[in-house]
């Protein structure tokens, strides 16, 4: 029998499969169904820095300051009535979930500047969060801020959230767009982060060519998004003192197995569960257990990091060589067998 238990951020989870930040845990009933299907933990939808620092009037002022800069500018900005103001609903939901569930409940913050709003970390800890996930979602848009300045501010933000979090562990959810990801990860560890979650899926608005408006539909991920995560996990595992979680593109137990082999202690699921509900979690658990068993792993812990890059003497040279080999191996369709 394969043991799926895993230790994540000082928490003992019965499974590495975690429900990622999303509306999936909006109600206690939904969360209980996911727990019954085998979830190791749940992460709540994020509270945004903007919800805390901007009173409703301030939010309007921020948005209105941009609306005249371009004829279509308003359509690129969020509608103020879809951005909820204040953390009270999340604190209430957290308390209700904490009372109902016997698996860890992780609260999520989305913010990018150190400041008074980070006191929310303390409120979430006081309301019963077992850990915090801080999402550093920040698509750069100005010529003024250099990468170094952005990263320094983000590291300061992590330190501020860790300081406010009353001792509960903080894991940081990143985008893939850091030129020096390993060094940045090491700075986050020094700032007190306990883990990393890789990677954010950037909201990717398309343009509707008929209306010239932004097409804001959120499309679910596919397994094709996983390799980007696998690569980063394999690079980081064993090199930074951070526990690694995967998010993005996990739809099968085999996807989850790959993430674990590359070094993920936990594997978050959202699109798969939005598509198929708790049954998908039960299926992915079965498939993961089946794969581990068939490959003689007694536990997911034993498999964690088995294919990381820690045994490669010069990972950069190895990566460049592999890239060159992949390019060389391409053949025109008519010569492919
Ligand atoms: C409807 C929806 C809502 C989401 N809300 C949040 C959120 O509040 N905070 C967050 O960090 N990520 C949020 N995400 C991103 C997911 O947590 C996850 O990182 C992303 O969907 C990639 O995982 P997947 O391929 O399993 O969907 C959301 C995703 C979806 C689809």
Keyphrases for this structure?
Dihydroorotate_DH_1_2; two-stranded antiparallel ribbon; pyrimidine biosynthesis; 8-stranded parallel β-barrel; FMN; binds flavin mononucleotide; about 325 residues; flavoprotein; TIM Barrel; single chain; oxidoreductase; alpha/beta
Any chance you could write out the topology, listing elements then pairs?
Elements: E1 6-8, E2 11-13, E3 17-19, H1 28-36, E4 41-48, H2 49-53, H3 56-64, H4 73-76, H5 88-100, E5 105-110, H6 120-126, E6 131-135, H7 147-164, E7 170-174, H8 181-190, E8 195-198, E9 206-208, E10 213-215, H9 226-236, E11 243-247, H10 253-261, E12 264-269, H11 271-276, H12 278-294, H13 300-303, H14 315-328
Parallel strand pairs: 3-4, 3-12, 4-5, 5-6, 6-7, 7-8, 8-11, 11-12
Antiparallel strand pairs: 1-2, 9-10
The structure holds flavin mononucleotide (FMN).
Flavin mononucleotide binds next to strand 4, strand 5 and helix 11.
